[in-house]
Homocitrate synthase
Amino acid sequence: MNAMRTVVIDDTTLRDGEQSAGVAFSLEEKIDIATRLAKLGVPELEVGIPAMGAEERESIRILASLKLPARLLVWARMKSEDIQQCAGLGVPMADLSVPASDQQIQRKLGKDRRWVLANIRRCVAQARDLGLQVGVGFEDASRADPDFLLQAAQTAQAAGARRIRYADTVGIMEPFGVHAAISRLRDGLDVEIEMHAHDDLGLATANTLAAALAGATHLNTTVNGLGERAGNAALEEVVLGLRQLYRIETGVDLKKFPALSALVENASGEPLGWRKSLVGKRVFSHEAGIHVDGLLKDPANYQGVDPAAVGRRHTLVLGKHSGRQGVIQAYAQLGIALEKRQADRLLAEVRQFAVRERRSPDDRELADLYRTLPQHSSSPAQAETVLGERPQEVASHRLAVAA
Ligand SMILES: CC(=O)SCCNC(=O)CCNC(=O)[C@H](O)C(C)(C)COP(=O)(O)OP(=O)(O)OC[C@H]1O[C@@H](n2cnc3c(N)ncnc32)[C@H](O)[C@@H]1OP(=O)(O)O
Ligand SMILES: O=C(O)CCC(=O)C(=O)O
């Protein structure tokens, strides 16, 4: 395993995240998102595209005026007018983006490789003259000729860029290919190298981790993986994956992440999938009897990720796949100690309920089921009394397990 090392997270929720079709953050949301990201310890934030217009530039200026403990970057095309607009915003660094693949150089820009190299020299110099630190973003790097990509990156370095960005713009890479591509750049360059991954094949996080292992110094992420099409590498997955799998530290503390995740989810206008890793509503919920029994004996039996690392906890859910121990635990939370025979009977009831209603019974419904047991049919007050003593649990039967 690697010795402890660090990489820098450059979160682009406010740039590529907002590029998700249909997403437009308000200024208040941008301020809230940036402030929370900085509070978690995210050291770099890409906060917008000055060329989009006066309103965008004003919001960038306001974000810069907050003097957050994070370095801010803006994104620009490699065009003189766009670069000019990056100046005077209070943002120290710009990512100047240029396509690296022949596909985009020829079929998008109508240019050739020589033009790209000349443009890099000219535009990096222009940005530096404006007092900006410069990163050169190689759009579509993953489809570029690797020899040309290295030549272009060396041109950027020679022109005074401090960083190059390897963008898998259309999300076609896999981790072994990323490792080889970043290793090649690492061997041929002395500048910072940043990975920018997209999740079209569900590999954005894997590709980002592979880039870190190959020597990338900076990683682009977004909260919840928001971003163009299938999104970018999720901040939470990258931070936890680096730490847990490779002992690579980012300085980002995810214990307060749920509030930021919810903020970005709401601001994006689209609910997160309930199975989305680390942040989905149900990713720490357990119903299957064998899992619940195992968790109750020792959470480590069924825990790959400690939910506390992302500010969450396990919940136990009753349903079609429950077993006796889950039922006993659920009723114990209501203050009702079940005998084995009662638990078995209630398990059958719970299963029928779940199949019929397509959901779990809530606390009141559990109490109702309990009252149908023969020996309790004459004394329903017991369950009511218990529920009355535990009002906070009436709304839900989902139970926390000590992690
Ligand atoms: C992969 C990425 O995520 S790149 C970032 C993409 N983000 C965005 O596009 C969001 C913000 N974009 C915008 O607000 C607008 O597209 C603007 C302000 C940048 C440009 O708007 P417009 O001038 O109206 O151009 P439009 O968006 O229609 O077309 C893009 C133009 O940029 C050119 N272009 C694209 N990438 C680059 C580049 N890296 N360097 C130089 N020119 C570029 C295109 O060739 C096209 O120019 P053309 O019309 O002369 O062929
Ligand atoms: O060129 C860059 O800086 C990266 C642009 C981007 O968002 C992408 O290619 O997906």
